[in-house]
C-alpha cells in the first residue's frame, strides 16, 4: 500500500496486530496439513533461539568446502544438528540497512530471494499505528513456529465419531526471516534484521513448484472455477484445461483439490442466503431497468415460487407470443426447485425464452401463481398454449403391449392418423375406431383416455386456429430444457443457477443476433426470375424466405390445375397436389377475390403457420402477380423486429464496473495478441517477458498486490453480482421431493434378503411358542388357528 510519511510521523505507534496471511486454521478437503498458527504474539518472538541451531556468528557458508556447494550450504553444529544456508546470487540476497519504498516492494524482494533459495515465505507479525498504517513487518520462512500439539487417547474414542486425522508436520521452528520497520527520517522501510540460516533442508528448483506459495490460485484460476461451475464444466475438467493452456504443471502447480477448495469456499461464502440474494439481484435489476419484471412468493420465510422476465423477453413475447410452450425441468439447482421456462418461436423459427420461473413443486397452486405472474408481466394471453401431460402417461404406451411398442406398422399408422392436419374431425374419429379395431385395443384405458381428450391434442380439431401449426408438441420446451441443462447443474445454489441462466440466454440471443446479421449482410441465391421470390428475399428473414422459396418450387413442379369456376370477382380453383411419382394425392380449393386482393386455400397453411401455401402461389404465378399482398406478410416473420442484444446482464444492470470490465477484456486481448506475435521469435519473446517483469516490479508501489484472502473475497463479489446480506428474510425451500426422485432404496436379490433376514435376532413368538424372526402379528400359524 502507498504510505504517506506524515501519517506515520503524526500517529503514535501503539497498536500491534499479529497476522498470518495464509489461513492455516482453515480446513481443506483432503491431502493438506491442518496447520495452526501458533507463533508468539510478541513482536520479537522470533528472535529467541530454537533448539540447537547455530548462530550466524558461530558458522558461516565459508566453513563449507567449495566443491561441496551446489544449491545450499549444510553446516553441522557442535551439538550434531544442522543448519542450511541458501546459495544464491549476492544481488538477490537482502542486506541489513537496505531501504524499500513500500511493504509490498520489500515482500516482492524477499519472495524473489526465497524462490531462488528454495523455501517458502509466510507473512507474520505486523506493527501498525492508530491510523492503520503499517510501521513494521515480519517476513518469515513458512516452517517458522512450533508444530501444533495434538492429543490422542485410544481409551477415549467415541464410537462412530470423527476419525483422528493422520497429518504431517510442517513447522520446524526455523528462524529464517527478514524484518523491516519504517524510518521517519528517510520516509522508507529499512531492513533491520535478516536471518539467512534454516534448520531444515531447502528445496531444489524442480521441487519449488509444489510448495504452497506456488499453489496459490490466481485471479485467472478464480475465473476458470467460477465460470466453469455456471457452464457445467466440472472441477477436474476445468483444472486439466487450465493446465493445458498454461503449458503444464511447471506453470500451473495448483491442483484440482485447490480448485475444489475454492469452490467450497465460494459456496460457504453464500451459505443459506442464496434465495435472498436471488431476490435481491432480480429486484436490483428492476430498479436499474423498470421494464425488468420479477415477482416472488414465500411461505414461512421459504421461497415458494419466483417468476422473472427481462425487457428483451417481454419484447419477444410482444412480437412472437401468439404460441407458447412451457414444461418443467429438474436437477438445475441443489435445492431441487423446479425450473419452468416459457418458450416462443421467433422470426427465425428459433426458440426464445419469454419468461422463466422456479417453483418448489408441481402442483395446481404453484402453476396458477406463475401463470398469473406471466399474465401480469405480458398483459395479454397467448393464442395457443402447448403443455405436457403427466410424465406417467409417457410410460403408458410401452406397457400396453410389447409388440405394439416396437411395431413399425402400428407406429406408422398411429403417426399418420394423429398428426395429419388435413383430416376433418369426423374422418379422424372414423379412422381412429378402425385403428383400434384393427390392433385389438378395445377397452384399453390409455387409448380411451387419449380419445376422450382428443380435442386438446389432435391437430384436426384446432387446425383452424391461428398459428396452431408452429408447435404441435412440447418438443420445443424439451429442447430448451436440454439447452439449459448444458449450463446448469444440480450442485449450483440459486445464485449459481441465475448466472447459468444468464449465460444460456446470452448464447441464445447471440445466435439470434448472428441470424439477424446474416439476413442483413448477405443475399440468398434466387432460383427463378419470379418477382414474388425477389420480394420475399427483401422482407422475410432468411429462414422464412427459404420456406417461401420451397413453396414456390413446389408450386411449379408439384401442383397441377383442376377446374376453375368464376363468379363475378371471385374465382374458385381446384389445385391438385402431386407426389414425386406425379401421382395426385389430394385436391385443394383456392378462392381468389381480386377486388380486395384476397386469396384463400383449404389447406389452411397461412392460418396455421403464417405463410402462403404452394396452392395459392400457383394461382398467383398464373396471374403473373408481382408481389405478395401486404396482408399476407405477417409482422412476426419480418426482419429487424427485435434489436440485437450483445451486452451481458451484469453490464446492462450495473452489477459490475463497466469500464473495468471492458478494460480487462481489452487487456486480455492485447496480451494474447502480443504473445501470438512474438511466440515464433525467441529473442522477441525473451524481451517481452523481461519487459513485463520490469513493469511488474516498477508498479509494485502504485499497484500493490492483493493478499490471497482479499483476492478471493473480491472474486466472490465480482462473480455473484450482489452483496451477501447480513440477515436473510427469504430462505431456500426444504423438503422438496419431485417426481421420479426415488426412495433412496435399491432392489435386493432374494439371496441378499435371506442373508439380511438371517442376521436378525431371533425371538419367541407368543402364538406358536417357537423362536424365529416373526411375532404373534405375522405368525405363519395365525390363519390356520382361525
UniProtKB/TrEMBL annotation:
Sorted UniProt keywords: Metal-binding, Zinc, Zinc-finger
Superkingdom field: Eukaryota
Region Disordered, residue ranges: 728-758
Alphabetical list of InterPro entries matching this protein: FAR1_DNA_bnd_dom (IPR004330), MULE_transposase_dom (IPR018289), Znf_PMZ (IPR006564), Znf_SWIM (IPR007527)
Pfam families, per the entry: FAR1, MULE, SWIM
Sample GO molecular function, one term: zinc ion binding
Keyword Zinc among record annotations: yes
Ranges of residues in domain SWIM-type: 588-624
Record protein name field: SWIM-type domain-containing protein
Organism, as annotated: Centaurea solstitialis (yellow star-thistle)
Amino acid at each position: 500500500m502507498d504510505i504517506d510519511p506524515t501519517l506515520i510521523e503524526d500517529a503514535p505507534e501503539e497498536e500491534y496486530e499479529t497476522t498470518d496471511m495464509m489461513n492455516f486454521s482453515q480446513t481443506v478437503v483432503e491431502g493438506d496439513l491442518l496447520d495452526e498458527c501458533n507463533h508468539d504474539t510478541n513482536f520479537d518472538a522470533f528472535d529467541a533461539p530454537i533448539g540447537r541451531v547455530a548462530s550466524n556468528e558461530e558458522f558461516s557458508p565459508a566453513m563449507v568446502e567449495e566443491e561441496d556447494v551446489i544449491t545450499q550450504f549444510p553446516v553441522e553444529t557442535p551439538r550434531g544438528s544442522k543448519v542450511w544456508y541458501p546459495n544464491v546470487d549476492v544481488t538477490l540476497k537482502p542486506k541489513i540497512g537496505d531501504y524499500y519504498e513500500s511493504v509490498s516492494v520489500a515482500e516482492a524482494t524477499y519472495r524473489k530471494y526465497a524462490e531462488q533459495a528454495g523455501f517458502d515465505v509466510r507473512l507474520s507479525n505486523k506493527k501498525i499505528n492508530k491510523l492503520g498504517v503499517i510501521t513494521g513487518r515480519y517476513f518469515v520462512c513458512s516452517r517458522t513456529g512450533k508444530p501444533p500439539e495434538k492429543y490422542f487417547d485410544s481409551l477415549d474414542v467415541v464410537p462412530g465419531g470423527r476419525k483422528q486425522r493422520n497429518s504431517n508436520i510442517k513447522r520446524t521452528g526455523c528462524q529464517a526471516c527478514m524484518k523491516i520497520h519504517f524510518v521517519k527520517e528517510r520516509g522508507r522501510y529499512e531492513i533491520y534484521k535478516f536471518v539467512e540460516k534454516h534448520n531444515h533442508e531447502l528445496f531444489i528448483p524442480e521441487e519449488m513448484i509444489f510448495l504452497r506459495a506456488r499453489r496459490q490460485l490466481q485471479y485467472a484460476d478464480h475465473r476458470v472455477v467460477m465460470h466453469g461451475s455456471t457452464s457445467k464444466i466440472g472441477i477436474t475438467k476445468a483444472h486439466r484445461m487450465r493446465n493445458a493452456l498454461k503449458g503444464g504443471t511447471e506453470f500451473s502447480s495448483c491442483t484440482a483439490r485447490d480448485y475444489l477448495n475454492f469452490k467450497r469456499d465460494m459456496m460457504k461464502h453464500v451459505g443459506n442466503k442464496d434465495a435472498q440474494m436471488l431476490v435481491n439481484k432480480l429486484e436490483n435489476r428492476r430498479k436499474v431497468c423498470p421494464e425488468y419484471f420479477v415477482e416472488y412468493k414465500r411461505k414461512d420465510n421459504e421461497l415458494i415460487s419466483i417468476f422473472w422476465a427481462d425487457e428483451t423477453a417481454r419484447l419477444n413475447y410482444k412480437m412472437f407470443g401468439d404460441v407458447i410452450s412451457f414444461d418443467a425441468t429438474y436437477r438445475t439447482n441443489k435445492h431441487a426447485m423446479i425450473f419452468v421456462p416459457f418458450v416462443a418461436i421467433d422470426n427465425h423459427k428459433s426458440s426464445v425464452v419469454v419468461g422463466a420461473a422456479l417453483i418448489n413443486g408441481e402442483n395446481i397452486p404453484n402453476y396458477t401463481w406463475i401463470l398469473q405472474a406471466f399474465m401480469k408481466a405480458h398483459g395479454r394471453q397467448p393464442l395457443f398454449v402447448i403443455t405436457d401431460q403427466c410424465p406417467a402417461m409417457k410410460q403408458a404406451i410401452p406397457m400396453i403391449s410389447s409388440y405394439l411398442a416396437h411395431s413399425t406398422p402400428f407406429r406408422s399408422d398411429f403417426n399418420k392418423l394423429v398428426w395429419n392436419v388435413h383430416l376433418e374431425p369426423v374422418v379422424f374419429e372414423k379412422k381412429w375406431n378402425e385403428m383400434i379395431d384393427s390392433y385389438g385395443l378395445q377397452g384399453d384405458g390409455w387409448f380411451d383416455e387419449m380419445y376422450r381428450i382428443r380435442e386438446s391434442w389432435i391437430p384436426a380439431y384446432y387446425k383452424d386456429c391461428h398459428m396452431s401449426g408452429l408447435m404441435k408438441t412440447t418438443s420445443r420446451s424439451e429442447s430448451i430444457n436440454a439447452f439449459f441443462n448444458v449450463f446448469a447443474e444440480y450442485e449450483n445454489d440459486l445464485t449459481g443457477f441465475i448466472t447459468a441462466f444468464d449465460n444460456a440466454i446470452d448464447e441464445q440471443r447471440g445466435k439470434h443476433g448472428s441470424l439477424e446479421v446474416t439476413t442483413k449482410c448477405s443475399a440468398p441465391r434466387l432460383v427463378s426470375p419470379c418477382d414474388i421470390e425477389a420480394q420475399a428475399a427483401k422482407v422475410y428473414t432468411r429462414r422464412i424466405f427459404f420456406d417461401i422459396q420451397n413453396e414456390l418450387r413446389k408450386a411449379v413442379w408439384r401442383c397441377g390445375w383442376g377446374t376453375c369456376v368464376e363468379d363475378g370477382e371471385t374465382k374458385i380453383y381446384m389445385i391438385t397436389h402431386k407426389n414425386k411419382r406425379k401421382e395426385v394425392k389430394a385436391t385443394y380449393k383456392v378462392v381468389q377475390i381480386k377486388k380486395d386482393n384476397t386469396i384463400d386455400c383449404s389447406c389452411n397453411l397461412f392460418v396455421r403457420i403464417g405463410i402462403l401455401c404452394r396452392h395459392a402461389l400457383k394461382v398467383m404465378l398464373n396471374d403473373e402477380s408481382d408481389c405478395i399482398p401486404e396482408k399476407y406478410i405477417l409482422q412476426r416473420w419480418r426482419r429487424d423486429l427485435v434489436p440485437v442484444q450483445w451486452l451481458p446482464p451484469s453490464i446492462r444492470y450495473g452489477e459490475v464496473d463497466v469500464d473495468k470490465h471492458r478494460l480487462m477484456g481489452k487487456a486480455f486481448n492485447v496480451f494474447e495478441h502480443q504473445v501470438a506475435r512474438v511466440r515464433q521469435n525467441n529473442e522477441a519473446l525473451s524481451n517481452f517477458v523481461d519487459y513485463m517483469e520490469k513493469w511488474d516490479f516498477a508498479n509494485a508501489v502504485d499497484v500493490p498486490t492483493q493478499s490471497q484472502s482479499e483476492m478471493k473475497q473480491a472474486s466472490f463479489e465480482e462473480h455473484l453480482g450482489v452483496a451477501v446480506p447480513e440477515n436473510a428474510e427469504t430462505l431456500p425451500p426444504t423438503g422438496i421431493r419431485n417426481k421420479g426422485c426415488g426412495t433412496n432404496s435399491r432392489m435386493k436379490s432374494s439371496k441378499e434378503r435371506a442373508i439380511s433376514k438371517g442376521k436378525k435376532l431371533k425371538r419367541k413368538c407368543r402364538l406358536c411358542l417357537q423362536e424365529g424372526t416373526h411375532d404373534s402379528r405375522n405368525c405363519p400359524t395365525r390363519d390356520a388357528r382361525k
